[in-house]
Design goal:
The complex is a heterodimer of chains A (about 375) and B (about 325).
Chain A (H helix, E strand, L loop, with lengths): L3 E10 L2 E11 L4 E6 L5 H9 L6 E6 L2 E2 L10 E4 L11 H10 L5 H15 L14 H13 L5 E5 L7 H18 L2 E6 L2 H7 L2 E6 L2 E6 L1 H6 L4 H6 L6 E10 L2 E6 L6 E3 L2 H6 L7 E5 L4 E4 L7 E10 L3 E8 L2 E8 L9 E6 L4 E5 L11
Parallel strand pairs in A: 3-8, 3-9, 6-7, 7-8
Antiparallel strand pairs in A: 1-2, 1-4, 4-5, 9-10, 11-12, 11-14, 12-13, 14-20, 15-19, 16-17, 16-19, 17-18
Helix pairs in contact in A: 2-3, 2-4, 3-4
Chain B lengths: L6 H32 L20 H7 L2 E3 L6 H6 L2 H8 L2 E3 L12 H32 L5 H10 L9 H11 L5 H26 L3 H8 L4 H30 L2 H6 L7 H7 L8 H21 L1 H8 L7
The chains are: A alpha+beta (about 375), B mainly alpha (about 325).
The structure holds adenosine-5'-triphosphate (ATP) and magnesium ion.
The site of adenosine-5'-triphosphate (ATP) has 11 residues of chain A, from helix 1.
Keywords (chain A): ATP-binding, Cell membrane, Membrane, Nucleotide-binding, Translocase, Transport
GO molecular function (chain A): ABC-type transporter activity; ATP binding; ATP hydrolysis activity
Subcellular location (chain A): Cell inner membrane
């Protein structure tokens, strides 16, 4: 039963502020993923919670009690480091037993607990080995075992599988999820890999340059990005973002991308939902699957020319030229033959996002 | 690496082996000279050209350890027959072993000088490496104000030849009564080695990922415990390498030992050559003393050789 709360946390390295007023409440048993680009302050946040880094402002509360003045050893939190940090001079058994030796447990108890954790992680036959003799995946299992064995209040994981190769990463991802469901402890997991985040998280916390951008379920951050950063950070291939102007046209609204001659047709409701922002500087965000391409002319479809075609196996990403702008559309593979083809495109209003260019914020338009 | 080697590579390899052999011979020649002289009969020690084939003798070592004096007249046959073998070899050289009133054999000056060397070198090495390790850890892990300046200052103590300060040191030591004392030499050697030890250990400490201790901190250990349980075992290689270098420096130090000590705390380096001056020098005895003096460093280095080799390539192979 562990809740963790960050309230107004600030952290400076010298004059550089790396965590800016971070507020976050993590529920018991929740699996939170901190997602962000390299250098955005994920590790620093994790280390602050663990007690390896002091904070310059705000509170870190564990079960309602401020812990920012407690030493790491007194916070009862376990951490898996990106580098695994298995002690090279100790066997796997000793590594896992090490956290228990800091407690007043008897030898027999320690032995029993080490073996039970080893069994859960299927590393019993590795117990006598030295870390240097292990494969990457096994090292990672041992590192998790060392973190689990103490039954800590919370588990912190800093890109625990970032160093593994792609296939192993997928396996370990599933295993971490399985373990979490089985053991159920409040977990904070740091990664810069959005697929990892999507597949593991109960809630994703997206950070950028030390500022929290959005907290929400994987579906939430994908379908309803709170701002331009999240919109372009989450999802692959990346969401198209283009400056756009919205005008009234007959019985509908028209969204013109950049300097294009004609606009895409949108339901009239857009005008009211934009709520007066229609005149301001707007950005249209549309994921490639929201750009619909067909060969024949049809109502609401604009004639466009294809540019680069990127075959990605199960689908193609086709660049189409709208005015001087490029929009990326997702098509069935082989749908267009190559560059220079004339096709017709439309934007699916239900998948369109509108952002205020000045603030970057989503205008929350859902059609 | 290519599995197939070209002929030029093979040629290069052979040249390298020859070069290594030549260098090895150059380095081993003086050691051979000392070792062989230490086992030569006295009359063969200074022949020209040098005698290479000879019947090895143990007499130089007997003479090294026992206090001797010149025989006025040869021993009587009874005396000679009653003497143990080690006394006979001294008789054979025209000398006799000095005994006290109770007939106890008197030791020469060498064993006590050797002991002094051991005491001073070991103690100062332990102190220098111990303090160096702690200091290096502090510099490596904590933000120390003026760290670069402090480290430079520490290194600067080695920037002038130590002998430059010999006279002032001698005067100061005399004033506080530290001359000709073990403590005095230990302090001196510790001070000399400390800067070296700090710098070397800092390099090794920097190589130990700080995540190891941080993992231990999170796992419920204090920093002190993390240092002893995690950092020290990881630093073993560095400590061994640093200890060897400090030990060699302290063991071989000559100038200060010569100036600062005379009897009680005199170490072997100033003692051995002092034997040259007394009467006709017996080079075999001097060689025997030098040979024994070489052994502790050789043994120490040999015991730590695995650590040393790893220490040499430390940092080069990781990352
Ligand atoms: N000890 C430190 N001293 C000074 N600056 C630091 C220190 N640790 C981190 N930083 C800086 O703080 C910022 C955030 O670092 P942090 O390690 O938290 O990023 P991250 O999100 O974990 O990135 P990555 O994905 O690369 O691990 C970076 O700009 C980094 O350079
Ligand atoms: Mg990081």
């Amino acid at each position: 039963m562990t809740q963790i709360e960050l309230s107004g946390v600030q952290k400076y390295f010298g004059a550089v502020q790396v965590i800016k007023d971070l507020n976050l409440k993590i529920d018991d048993n929740e699996f939170i993923v901190l997602l962000g680009q390299s250098g955005c302050g994920k590790t620093t946040t994790l280390r602050a919670i663990a007690g390896l880094e002091t904070i310059d402002g705000g509170d870190i509360l564990i079960d309602g009690k401020p812990v920012q003045h407690l030493k790491a050893a007194d916070r009862d939190i376990a951490m898996v480091f990106q580098s695994f940090s298995l002690y090279p001079h100790m066997s796997v058994y000793e590594n896992i037993a090490f956290p228990l030796r800091a407690t007043r447990k008897s030898k027999a108890e320690i032995d029993q607990e080490v073996r039970s954790v080893a069994k859960t992680l299927q590393i019993t036959d590795l117990l006598a080995k030295k870390p240097s003799a292990l494969s990457g995946g096994d090292m990672q299992r041992v590192a998790i075992g060392r973190a689990l064995v103490r039954r800590p209040k919370a588990m912190l994981m800093d890109e625990p599988i970032g160093a593994l190769d792609a296939k192993l990463r997928e396996e370990m991802r599933a295993e971490i999820k399985r373990l979490h469901i089985k053991q159920g402890s409040t977990s904070i997991y740091v990664t810069h890999d959005q697929i990892e985040a999507m597949s593991l998280a109960d809630r994703i916390v997206i950070m950028h340059e030390g500022v929290l951008q959005q907290v929400g379920s994987p579906d939430d951050v994908y379908s309803h990005p709170a701002n331009l950063f999240v919109a372009q950070f989450v999802g692959s291939p990346v969401m198209n973002v283009a400056e756009a102007s919205v005008t009234e046209k007959a019985s509908a609204a028209s969204v013109t991308v950049g300097d294009a001659a004609t606009g895409f047709e949108f339901p009239r409701a857009l005008l009211s939902k934009l709520n007066g922002h229609a005149g301001g500087k707007l950005a249209l965000g549309i994921r490639p699957e929201g750009v619909i391409v067909r060969h024949e002319a049809a109502d609401g479809f604009l004639p466009v020319e294809t540019q680069i075609v990127e075959p990605l196996g199960s689908f193609d990403i086709v660049d189409i030229k709208v005015g001087s702008r490029m929009l990326r559309a997702r098509t069935k593979s082989g749908f267009v033959s190559g560059p220079g083809e004339r096709v017709f495109a439309r934007i699916d209003p239900a998948q369109a996002h509108f952002f205020d260019v000045a603030s970057g914020r989503s205008l929350g338009v859902r059609l | 690496m290519a599995a197939v080697r070209t002929s030029s590579e093979i040629g290069f390899n052979r040249a390298a082996i020859v070069a290594v052999l030549v260098v090895t011979i150059i380095f081993l020649a003086p050691i051979y000279w000392i070792a062989s002289t230490a086992f030569k009969p006295r009359n063969l020690a200074t022949t020209i050209p040098p005698t290479v084939v000879f019947q090895p003798e143990i007499s130089p070592f007997v003479k090294l350890f026992a206090k001797r004096s010149q025989l006025r007249s040869p021993p009587t046959p009874e005396e000679y027959a009653a003497a143990p073998w080690w006394e006979r070899v001294v008789f054979n050289g025209g000398e006799k072993i000095v005994r006290d009133g109770k007939g106890e054999v008197q030791w020469s000056g060498y064993p006590s000088r050797f002991m002094n060397s051991l005491i001073v070198a070991i103690t100062s090495t332990v102190l220098a490496v111990g303090m160096g390790t702690f200091t290096a850890y502090g510099f490596s892990r904590f933000r120390v104000k003026g760290e670069a300046d402090l480290l430079f200052f520490i290194l600067s103590t080695r920037m002038l030849p130590p002998v430059v300060v010999a006279i002032p040191m001698f005067l100061m030591y005399r004033a506080v009564g530290l001359n000709d004392s073990h403590l005095g030499l230990i302090i001196l050697y510790t001070a000399f080695n400390l800067s070296f030890s700090v710098w070397l250990m800092k390099g090794f400490m920097d190589e130990i990922p700080k995540e190891y201790e941080e993992a231990a901190l999170v796992d419920g250990y204090t920093r002190m415990e993390a240092f002893f349980k995690i950092v020290l075992p990881e630093a073993a290689t560095g400590i061994a390498a640093t200890a060897v270098f400090c030990f060699i420096t302290a063991w071989n130090e000559y100038a200060f030992a010569l100036i600062m000590t005379s009897r009680r705390a005199q170490t072997a380096p100033p003692f051995i050559p002092s034997q040259v001056g007394s009467g006709l020098p017996d080079w075999t005895v001097i060689a025997a003393g030098t040979f024994l003096f070489l052994l502790p460093v050789a043994i120490f280095t040999f015991l730590l050789r695995n650590h040393l080799l790893r220490g040499m390539s430390f940092g080069a192979i990781r990352k």
